[in-house]
Each structure stands twice: as structure tokens, then as C-alpha cells.
Design goal:
With about 550 residues, the protein is mainly α. It has 24 helices and 6 strands. Helices cover about 70% and strands about 5% of the residues.
Length: about 550
Amino acid sequence: MDILTVIVFTLFLSLVLNLILKKINISPIVGYIFTGIVIVSFTDFININNSYVNHVAEYGIVFLMFTIGLEFSVNHLKQMKKEVFVFGTLQVVVTTIIFTFIANKLFSLDLKTSLVIGSALALSSTAIVLKVLNENGDIHRPYGRNSVGILIFQDLAVIPILLMITILADADKSLGDMVLNTLISAVIVGVILFVLGFYVLEKFLAYVVDSHTEELFIIAILLLVLSSAWLAHSFGFSHSLGAFLAGMLIAETKYKYQIEADLVPFRDILLGIFFISVGMQVNLPTIFENFFLIIGLSIAILTLKVIIIFLIVRMFTFTKRAMKTALALAQVGEFSFAVLALASTSNLIENELNQIMISVVIISLIFTSLALRHVRAFTNLFYSQRTEVLEEPMISADIQNHIIVCGYSLLGQKIVKNLRSSNLAYVAIEHDRQHVKEGHDKGDIVFFGNAASKTMLNSLFVKNATAVIIAIDNDEKIRLICETINSIDPTITIVLKVSHKAQIDDFKDLKIDSFINENELVAEHLVQSATQCTINKG
């Protein structure tokens, strides 16, 4: 079977599987994994050099870490320091120690292998949990904040875990020398990236944006991500660390949300390839031979993680909130595949054990896909009293019960001015960099981005908005924005400025709550002014 046939078959199979799984609310991640299992089991893909697939798949994690970096700004850290550094540290450390002890004492594995397994099992699925929390609107609920904070720390912990595996595998090198060289390399990479980020990044992105060519903007972002990954790898770190640092730098710029919106398709497609490559590692005969062991381990690991996370979070908050957080993070995450893969190639874990652990991770991901959407309903069965109080969303702007203004030209600026004078919460979106700069100079809350982007609108919590005011003149863009808002939630109030009645007829097929005809409004004011002048003269 030639490579093109395999690609066509892979695309077809992944599409069909995910369409079916979507009907029962199972994450596409599971569909991609099953696609990989089918490909490696029922085709002669094994005869094709799959090293290229593995290299491409790695960049799914790279782009995931980059988008996590975008959310890891200094302001974000200040808001979530307890969730990240207290809950996160305790969860990773305690879970790793307990699972390491169990693997070493109960299953008689050597200490190095036990430590690898304990570290892998401490991680949860950033990809699935964040996606479901976003879709449910729970990401800025207290238990959602707890979950996100712990996930952020877990993602940071992946870097030292991978470094630890490298150190454990290389017994010939001095631990002190390796740590010293690592620290020196880290300082060099950090200085290079942060100097470039502080003095060059903003100007570079501004220059690209001024070209008014969207594909050049996307190319520029891909260049930043991949060059940062390359720089980190050149100094002995993972590609993911470089991408994460690049995301942190860009998180401080006004282009953050637009960059995130543009990169989501690349990230999700590459993540799909990553999970297909994970499925290709599964050996069905090994699974069948150890089927009951795998099921038993899966149940035991999920149960134990729920208990551990519940007890940790319960020390600081309500029982109900702690239970929700524990259920949300009970699974073993996608980064554990990277940990197990490195440990396997470093001969720290035997192939059969690796296959068993991969199978356990897949089962836990399936569990999460099915259960996470029903966490609140499940906990309400046992704890009916209300303890959840919505907190301010996890970005610096006040975006609860706010008004989103699409367009910040002259009309948009006047709208924002009136909203500010009325003490109404608002967020403006503008695609012209110069207008964004004007807004920042005035102290207005204006984000650079495409208002027709679903990701952009979700980033600004459009579901929580009181209304969306569209203050632009491009009919095609207006239609795209309205269609996007309606696809997110048809109940969101949309107010549209039009110039003539024909526009109202053009947009009748869209769900728009209010049309403001500027010509009729101007005519009305002109007549009022003229009448008032006549009265005054009389």
C-alpha cells in the first residue's frame, strides 16, 4: 500500500469515526487513537517508514504547549497563583510519590521504572479537559479554575519529568554536571527569547499586521513558534519548552487572541496526527493477553487519582467543589504518552509494560470523554446545596455581563465612549492595528483580532455577554460575524448598525435582534434640531 492510499484511508477513517463518536459526546482524541490502531493492525503501514509521522506528530504537542503559553501570562499567574502553585504542586508531587511507591512495592518494579510510571500517571489531559470545560462554560467556575490551575502546573512539570528521564537513562554522566549544563543552557535560551520578545517581537508583529495580509500574519506566527522550538532543542531541551516560552512572550502582546484563533486549526490537526501515532503504538495481541489486568488497573488508577485530588483540594475548599475537580482530572493525560515513549526508547520501561500503560491511558481518556460533561449533574446527586459562585473570568478585563463591540473605527470609538460614561462593562474587537493602538492610548479595552472568529469570540466569553454591537460597514464581514455568533449561541443579543433599509432586507435570514438605521436616526435629529431652531426664533 503506497503512502497516498494510507493518507486517504486515514483521513476517511478518522472522519467517519469522529462523526460517530461525536453523536455520543466522545472526544475526537479517542477517534484519532482508534484510527491509529486500525491503520497499524489492518494495513501494511508497518512497511512504510513512520519516523516522519512521529516527527510531524510531535508538533501537535508543540502547538498545544504554545497555546498553553498564551494563557500563562503574568496577570494570569497573579490571578491563579493558589490553583497553580499550591494545588498543582501538591497534586503532582503527592500523586507521583504514591504511584511510584505502589509500582515499586506492590508490583516489584525497579525504582527507575516506578518513578517513570508514577510521573506519567500524575498527569491529566489538558486537551480534553480544557475543551469540555470551554464547551460547558465551566472554565471560569471555581472548580474549572482549580482544574485549569492544576493542569497548567502539570504541563510545566512535563519539562522536568522529561529531563529526569534523560538523566535516569544516562548513568555514565555525572548528575551534577548534567544539572549545571542544563541550568546554563536554560539561562542562555531564556535570555535570548526574552530579549527578542522585549525589544523585537511587538515591532515585528506590528510590521506584519500593517501589511494587511492574513496569510503573512499566520506565517509569521508559525515562524515564531517553530524557531523558538528549534532554539530550545538546539540547547538540549524539548521543542515543547521553546514553544511554551514563545507563547508566554506573545501573551503579553495585544495580538494574543487573534494568534490563538489563527493557530487553533494547525494545533488541532497536528494533535490529531499525534494521537493517531499513539494508536499506532498499540499492540492488539498484548492487549488481549492482558485484558483483565488493563481493565483492573484502569479502574484502580482512576479511583485512586480521584481520592488523591479530592483530599488535596478539600483541604482548601468545599467538598462539592473538590469532588468536581477530582472527577475532572482523574484521567491520565496525553503528555504521559510522550513520557512513556521517551522512557521506552531510553530502555527504562519494557515494551509489554509500555503497551499495558498506553492501553490504560486510552481507557482513562475514553472515561473522561464520557463522564466530564456530566460532572456537575453527578455531584448534584450527592450535594444538592449550592456552593459554586461564578468568579471573574481568568483574564484581566471585566467580561461578566459585558457588551462586545465589533469594530473600533469612529463609530466604535463613540460607542465605547458612551459605554464607559455609563459605567457599562465592554470589550472591543478591531482588526486594524492603528485603531487598536488608538484605543490603548485612550485607555479603552480593545483587542486586536477577527470578530468573525469563533475562537476569538469564545476567548472573550461571548456567551456571557449582555449583547454584541456590530459597528462595521462591510456587509460580508457583518454576515460572517452574525453567523459565527448564532453558531455559538442563538440567544445572544445582536445589535447592528445599518445605512439603509435594503441592508435590513439582506440580513433578514440572520438572527439579529435590533437594527439601527443611521440615516433615519440622522434625519430624525436634523428635523428635531431644525424645529427647535424655529421655535427659538419665534
